[in-house]
Specification:
Blueprint (H helix, E strand, L loop, with lengths): L16 H13 L14 H13 L3 E5 L2 H12 L6 E5 L5 H8 L3 E5 L9 H7 L5 E5 L8 H11 L2 E5 L7 E2 L2 E2 L6 E5 L12 E5 L2 H10 L15 H7 L12 H12 L1 H19 L6 E2 L6 E2 L4 E5 L5 H13 L5 E2 L24 H7 L2 E5 L6 H20 L3
Parallel strand pairs: 2-3, 2-4, 4-5, 5-8
Antiparallel strand pairs: 1-9, 6-7, 6-11, 8-9, 10-12, 12-14, 13-14
Bound molecules: pyridoxal-5'-phosphate.
Pyridoxal-5'-phosphate (PLP) binds next to α3 and α4.
Length: about 400
Amino acid sequence: MSERFTGTFTQQEPIPEDAVEAALAVLRHGRLHRYNVVAGEIAETALLEEEFAAFTGARYCLAVASGGYAIATALRAAGVTPGDSVLTNTFTLAPVPGAIAAVGGTPVFVGVTEQLTIDLDDLAAKAGQAGYLLLSHMRGHICDMDRLMEICDGAGIKVIEDCAHTMGAAWNGTPSGRHGVAAAYSTQTYKHMNSGEGGFLVTDDEELAARATILSGSYMLYGRHRAAPGPEVFERVKYDTPNISGRMDNLRAAILRPQLKTLHDQVARWNERYGVLEAGLRGTPGLTVIERPAAETYVGSSIQVLLLDWAAEAILDVVARCAARGVELKWFGAPEPVAFTSRYDSWRYAPSAPMPPSDRVLAGILDMRVPLTFSLEDCALIARIIREEVSTVYGNGA
Ligand SMILES: *Cc1c(COP(=O)(O)O)cnc(C)c1O
C-alpha cells in the first residue's frame, strides 16, 4: 500500500486566543472604523502601523484593505500616472500586473531565472524602458538586491517592492521591503499574518507616505496616524491627492497586533517545515531543488521545485499522481490560468513578447503551500510521496 497524505493545503492555523480577545473587545465597543475613537483613545489600526513600522525599520507605515491595494497605492503615490510603463516580474501572481493596470500603467515583463528570481541581465537590458520597477519577491525568492539596486539607481528607476511572500524575510540582514522607495505587504489568509484581507505600505519618503495616507481615504483626519509624517507634509499634498478608499479597520488591526508579536517564531516554524521538505526532495532524479543564497533570510511558507525540460504530459502525470495521494502541487506551465496560478501570457490586457528562457523555467515550476498546520512528519511524508512519483515518471522516460 502506498502512503497517502490526508491534510489540507489551504488550512491555516486558527487565530490565536489573544487576537480573538482583542477582536471581541473591538466588537464590544463598536468603534471599528479607524478614525472612530473616543477622547484619549489610540485606534488599534494606528498602533498596528507603529508596530509594523518598527518591525521593518521603516519611518512610515500605512495599513490598508489588501496587499493589492497597497501595491497600487504605492505605485500611485510614487508618481506612476496613466500611460507610464512599469517593469515587473514575469514570474508573479495576477494582483501584481493588476495593480499596475489599476493605476493605468503598462507592465513591461522582466524574465525569471532558474533561481526563480528576476533576471538581472534582462532588467539591465530593459532599464531604459520605464521609470519604475514593481519588484515581486515571488514565493519568497529574493534576488541579489545589491546588484538590483545598482542597476535601478544607475538608470533612475524607482523600485516598489511586493513583499507578499517576504514579510519577515531579509537580504544581507536588511529586511525585505527596505531597499526600494516603498514596499507593500499582504495580510490575506494565505500570507504570513492572517486578517482575512489586509495589507501594509511602508516607506521612508514623507511625501509618498502623506499621499498614500490621503489616497487610502483619510479625509482630513491624517492627524490620527502615528507612523506618518507631520501635518506640514500633508499640507503640501492634500489638495491634489484624491481619496480612493481602501482603509484597514480596527477589527483587523486588533487581530493582527498579537500575530505580529509572534511572527519571528512563526517564521522559524515555517523554516523547520521547509527544511524537512527540501531535505526529502533533494537528490530526486530529474528534480531540481532551488538553492537558497546565503545572503537570503527566507520564510518557507511555500516550496518550489523545478522539473526542467520535462514534457508537459509527464509533469501533468506527476501532478495527477501526487494529487491521487493527497499532495496538491501547482504547475506554472499550464497554458490556461487555474485557481491562484496564471502566467504572464494569460494577462492579455498587458501585451508581452514571448520570453523563451523564462517560458522554459515557468514550464518546469511546481509549487506547494506549506501551512503551519502541517507537522514535520507531514512534511517528511509529502516529500516521500513527491519523490516516489517524480522518480516513477522520470524512470518511465520524462
Ligand atoms: C497575495 C499576493 C498579492 C496581493 O495580496 P492581496 O492581499 O491578496 O491583494 C500580491 N502579490 C503577490 C505575489 C501575492 O501572492
